[in-house]
Design a protein that fits this description.
The protein has about 300 residues and is mainly α. The protein contains 9 helices and no strands. It is elongated and about 70 Å long.
């Protein structure tokens, strides 16, 4: 009798384990499916937000009533970001000079150091690091400002007055980022070139005439243009992501803080992805019309 009872209990336990494992699998499928549907919905809402922001930005360009809002955002986003962008560019150029000098000097090519520094700064490091700094300084500020307005229902108040919050709040910020990021990149490039020159010529004693001669021959207008064009894409991505995260943040201080974190992470990833995609595109265009030029 005891043996029969034990066998029955063991069989029931095994059946319970099998049923429980199936139930766990169903829960996992349900959670994954819900997350996929949520992500698809977020992509759709973000795409609709970008479309509305683009339309509002275009309309704001022809409406003089929105110009004061755009000027104010240009001052906050552009003018106040110049010092940190210039410091970033200067240290990038100096660091490149420090790291690359020994390798080139070992081959007797130290006079070509300016080409390596300046091409790296104007094509890649200047635009990317400037955009990352803007994502941290401006992106977080935009998300926090708009997120606080959402939490305190100021955005709803703007809607209740018959004003489009996208046109009033988002469009000036998008236009300011879109227009001023290329100019900030130019400032970073300039300071990167100056910083590299200071370390190369003043500290390492490279002949300054040869330094500038090789730099002028190695750096083309195409290289500078690539960095400036990237600025439009980086600025648009930072503004769109930051404003969207601010508009859709959750309630409370924790929601605003989480939205700021998400905005910076998403902006940083988008900057790297756009930099890669644009690099491939520009390289293909250049190789189609011109031969690849050696830096040394």
């Amino acid at each position: 009798m005891v043996l029969v009872w034990n066998l029955a209990a063991k069989a029931g336990f095994q059946r319970f384990v099998r049923d429980d494992s199936k139930f766990g699998s169903y829960i996992m499928i349900d959670v994954v499916g819900a997350r996929v549907l949520q992500d698809i919905g977020n992509v759709g809402r973000f795409g609709r937000f970008i479309w509305q922001s683009a339309v509002a930005s275009v309309l704001s360009c022809v409406r003089t009533s929105t110009y004061p809002l755009i000027w104010a955002q240009m001052n906050i986003i552009g003018v106040r970001s110049v010092p940190v962008i210039m410091i970033t560019g200067a240290f990038v150029g100096m660091t490149l000079a420090i790291q690359a000098y020994d390798q080139l000097a070992g081959m007797g090519l130290e006079e070509h150091l300016g080409v390596l520094i300046n091409v790296s700064v104007v094509k890649e490091l200047g635009p990317v690091l400037s955009a990352v700094m803007l994502a941290g300084r401006i992106g977080g500020a935009l998300t926090a400002e708009l997120g606080t307005m959402r939490v305190t229902e100021q955005i709803e108040a703007i809607k209740s007055m018959g004003t489009d919050p996208i046109r009033h709040l988002v469009a000036p910020r998008v236009l300011a980022c879109l227009l001023l990021t290329p100019f900030l990149i130019i400032y970073a490039d300039l300071m990167g070139i100056v910083g590299g020159y200071f370390i190369s010529v003043v500290q390492f004693g490279i002949n300054k005439r040869a330094y500038w001669s090789f730099s002028a021959n190695g750096v083309e207008l195409w290289d500078v243009s690539i960095g400036v064009i990237k600025g439009f894409f980086f600025g648009g991505a930072i503004a769109a992501i930051s404003c969207y995260k601010g508009f859709t943040c959750k309630e409370g201080a924790h929601g605003v803080g989480q939205a700021c974190t998400d905005a910076f992470v998403a902006s940083f990833i988008s900057i790297l992805a756009l930099n890669f995609a644009l690099g491939v595109i520009f390289k293909s265009i250049y190789s189609t019309f011109w031969p690849i030029k050696s830096l040394v």
